[in-house]
Amino acid sequence: MSRRVRQRVEGNGFVSPSCCSVIGGDEDIAPKAQASVDWTSLSYDTVLLLFTRLNYRDRASLASTCRTWRSLGASSCLWSSLDLRPHKFDLSMASSLAARCANLQKVRFRGLDSADAIVNLRARDLREISGDYCRKITDATLSMIAARHEALESLQLGPDFCERITSDAIKVIAFCCPKLRKLRLSGMRDVNSEAIESLAKHCPQLCDVGFLDCLNINEEALGKVVSLRYLSVAGTINMNWRVAAESWEKLPRLTALDASRTSVDHVAVSRLMKSSQSLRVVCALNCPLLEHDVNVRGKLLIAMFNNAFKFDDNSKTPRDVFAYWRDLISKEDKSIDETMRWIEWIISHSLLRMAESNSQALNSFWLNHGAKLLLRLMQSSQEDVQERAATGLATFIVVDDENASIDCGRAEAVMRDGGIRLLLKLANSWREGLQSEAAKAIANLSVNANVAKAVAEEGGINVLAGLAKSMNRLVAEEAAGGLWNLSVGEEHKNEIAQAGGVNALVKLIFRWPNGCDGVLERAAGALANLAADDKCSTEVARAGGVHALVMLARNCKYEGAQEQAARALANLAAHGDSNNNNAAVGQEAGALEALVQLTKSPHEGVQQEAAGALWNLSFDDKNRESIAAFGGVEALVALAKSCSDASTGLQERAAGALWGLSVSEANSIAIGQEGGIPPLIALAGSEAEDVHETAAGALWNLAFNPGNALRIVAEGGVIALVHLCSSSVSKMARFMAALALAYMFDGRMDEYAMIGSSSAESTSKSVSLPGARIKALKHIESFITTFMEPQVFAAAALSSAPSMLAQVSEKVRIPEVGHLRCSGSEIGRFVTMLRNPSPILKACAAFALVQFTIPGGRHAMHHASLMQNAGEARILRSAAAAANMPREAKIFAKIVLRNLEHHQAECSKGKKSIIL
After folding, report:
1. What single-letter DSSP state applies at residue 366?
2. How many C-beta atoms surround the C-beta of residue 913 within 10 A?
């Protein structure tokens, strides 16, 4: 990770110690500052070392701080190599760097724009060019690069396919770059004989050729490149191995051949290894037609079925298999180091391709050898091999990328073999390419809970939180992904917050608000997980997370980031009882309007999380009215109507948001008029418990209004509610269905129907209210009866002893009801219902009041206070003593009175404590 040193510079040239961690890596660790560092006193060698640890952008920025450092920053030794991948590199950036690149020897780039800009560096002595993400690079671009760099010795493009490059470009390279020694290209369609013969003619020093994952190669022409020492045709499809063996066995210097992932067979391999005098190594990984080993003394065949992988399974770290291979190859070969470096390169490439194929047939190989090979390659001295090994490690464990599922056996094999420590070491490197790939592997591995624990124990959270502050977008993106996975569950949330992860994630959203979809989705996803914790949610809000997430919900067009931003806002708003985040989200400009608009998204995940956020936010009175003002009623009714075939998560949240809005009388009426009742009735018929429970809650609220009650009856809601009341496995759903039916048939709807029978509110559907009433009361009675244990109730009817009432209370209690919060008008309606002529409704009302006032419920004290302030105790005492009151209603009324006394006593204790 690179940081700008110019931040927080204090008056006299001193920098606070928190800014001094510029150097960091696997072998270069910055000294711990005791107090402060005087940068002006550093030796030139130290400053130059500092410069070498920065990417080209930060290097140029640091050089601008003073005249001395500007001179040092222009030193030719700093500009012999450039990695252009971490940041955007285009024509303007190339022009600004050109003055420093006179002695540039090596360049790594990414993508077409960077390739086009390379020629503007005017680095005529460039020796090595390596590029990835090359699918869009054309013959014209590659030819221009070759024409401007005649001293080129190495050209590598891959591992992604170079689909637009043809043999014509290879001929230009051959003609323009006579000093070429290494040429590796991936994914070309055809490499014809003219192109290969041009290389043989014009590039006499060409010793390393790789045409990987190509469609067609002229095997006979390759036999004419007599300077070849290393040849790779891995993954090439249409190979004639009889011609290849006949042509290549005559190559006088051929030392190593890579035929991995091809149709090479035993005959071709045997002929090459026995006939070629110079050939020492054949790599043939994942070759289905090569069925058994070929033993030739002094020569090595690397295949998946033989004993080439000499790992010590009892060791915690893999034995150095490359040292074993070195012993098998002739020790008299002076170029043994070069050969081993080539082996590392081609194996890392093939392992990555095999990992990308995601074949379960390779599972045994990965568990026994593949994982250990990748870990060994991560210790290579070649940076591109290390990166590719880390990428392979991140890839081979993934089973289903879309659903974020990994192979636990493979993940834990990496952990057992010391992979976590190796990856964290790479992540601590000062090289940003290694940081990015290592962070990606750590993120994927952390999907497994055991590996996530190991990552945390090894200090991985601090490492990822640090990388999330990187100015390199790719590094920050992968680090945010790691924090996202580690923040699943409760185990690591507080540690992430303590490591500065919350602040880093919020700043990522502000740093890259546009065009960086991966960063935004991962940062918002991690914040969403963290916001589920009460303490961490406060930290998110304090760090400016509300503003950042609302900005994301309003402005970002990428559905992944929208979904995670909405989920994060939903989780922030879920702690209304313990902090003020719910109100804070509602007060943030544009928040509620943006969430209402997201419910109209074409993407189901976005709709679901937006509806969930509105559900949580609707618990605040001001938010509830503001949501309606921004068109929330219409949007959520439309969503409920359209989600009949959607996921249960979306159905639940759509019903839940309408439930939350319907607490307001005005919103309740608006939902009914907008047509929200039919879709809620349909959702009440869902087999999913969460869905029909939430729909029952919404219908209960709506039924409080007699006009809505009549609509529920007219739309067939009685049947749906009766079914829930009698058959749902959820006691909560059955309870709310019973209360909705009680509202509908306590007499108010009948009065409304009589008054408004000729108005526009009335329905033309033929409904028998008396018949519906009989059915409803029957099932309400059956519901209450299920809680009445005959012996206990018989004893309670004879004795009002506290112990007996406590026993009944425990028998009838529905714990989930303690989360419901009723208004004074709702409580008053149940008290009034105690005087209803129907004994069933009397019992139902008393039963409901018991549930709402049982000590221990979240809102029990609130409900008791409402009843005390309204003088409802008098009515309850009257009900408990009335001769015409059903036995169970009398018992329930006595329990409610006892509950009120308990809460009053608790309230008095609280006041005394305050006085003391």
Report:
1. I
2. 8
Q: Mean pLDDT over all residues of the chain?
A: 88
3-state secondary structure of 197: helix
If one compares 860 and 24, the residue with the highest pLDDT of the two is 860
CA 347 to chain centre: 30
| Whole-number Å distance between alpha carbons of 743 and 826 | 10
Report the pLDDT value the prediction gives residue 287, as an integer from 0 to 100.
93
Question: Running DSSP on this structure, what letter comes out for residue 31?
Answer: P
- State the number of CA atoms in the 13 A half-sphere of 644 facing the CB: 8
Q: Which of 442-456, 741-755, 857-871 has the lowest mean pLDDT?
A: 741-755
CB burial of residue 672 (10 Å; 0-12, 13-18, 19+): buried
| Two structure tokens written together for 599 | 């419910």
Q: Which helix (H) or strand (E) holds 550?
A: helix 545-555
d(CA 745, CA 764): 20
Residue 258 near residue 208 (C-beta atoms within 8 A): no
**Which residues are CB-neighbours of 743 under 8 A, at least 6 positions away?**
700, 703, 704, 709, 749, 829
Q: In this structure, are residues 293 and 301 in contact, taking their beta carbons and an 8 Å threshold?
A: yes
Whole-structure pTM over 0.90, yes or no? no
HEC sequence for 130-145: EEECCCCCCHHHHHHH
What does the block give as tokens for 391?
Answer: 């990428």
pLDDT average, residue stretch 310-339: 68
Q: How confident is the model at residue 318 (pLDDT cuts 50, 70, 90)?
A: very low
Three-class SS string for 788-836?
Answer: CCHHHHHHHHHCCCHHHHHHHHHHHCCHHHHHCCCCHHHHHHHHHHCCC
Question: Going edge to edge, which strands form the sheet with 106-110?
Answer: 81-83, 106-110, 128-132, 154-157, 182-186, 208-212, 230-232, 256-258, 281-283, 300-302
pLDDT of residue 316 exceeding 70: no
**pLDDT given at position 26:** 40
Q: Report the C-alpha gap between 279 and 294 in whole angstroms.
A: 14
- The rounded distance, in Å, linking the Cα atoms of 521 and 561 is 4
Tell me the percentage of the chain whose pLDDT exceeds 90: 69
Q: Rounded distance, CA 833 to CA 257, Å?
A: 89
Distance CA(807)–CA(504), nearest Å, equals 53
| Residues belonging to the chain | 916
* 27 has pLDDT over 70: no
Structure tokens at 371: 């994982």
Segment 94-145, tens digit of pLDDT: 888 888 888 899 999 999 989 999 988 888 899 999 999 999 999 999 999 9
Convert 740-762 into a string of H (helix), E (strand) and C (coil): HHHHHCCCHHHHHHHHCCCCCCC
| pLDDT score, position 208 | 97
Query: Which of residues 196 and 11 earns the better pLDDT score?
Result: 196
The identity of residue 524, as a single letter, is A
User: Structure tokens of 349?
Assistant: 């490439």
Q: At what angle do helices 591-598 and 632-642 cross, to 10 degrees?
A: 20
Amino acid at 27: E
Residue 99 three-state SS: helix
Q: Which two tokens stand for residue 343?
A: 């082996």
Q: What is the CA radius of gyration of the chain?
A: 36
Pairing of strands 405-406, 398-400: antiparallel
Strands 216-217, 208-212: pairing kind: unpaired
Ranges of H-type helices in 556-603 = 559-572, 581-587, 591-598
At 892, which amino acid appears?
Answer: F
- pLDDT value at residue 752: 76
Rounded-to-integer distance, Cα 496 and Cα 446, Å: 14
What are the DSSP calls for 623-649, one per residue?
HHHHHHHTTHHHHHHHHHHH-TTS-HH
Q: Across residues 589-596, what is the average pLDDT?
A: 96
CA dihedral of 59, 61, 66, 67, whole degrees rounded to 10: 60
Q: 216 — phi, psi (to 5°)? A: -140, 140
- What DSSP designation does 277 have? S
Q: What is the pLDDT of residue 69?
A: 78
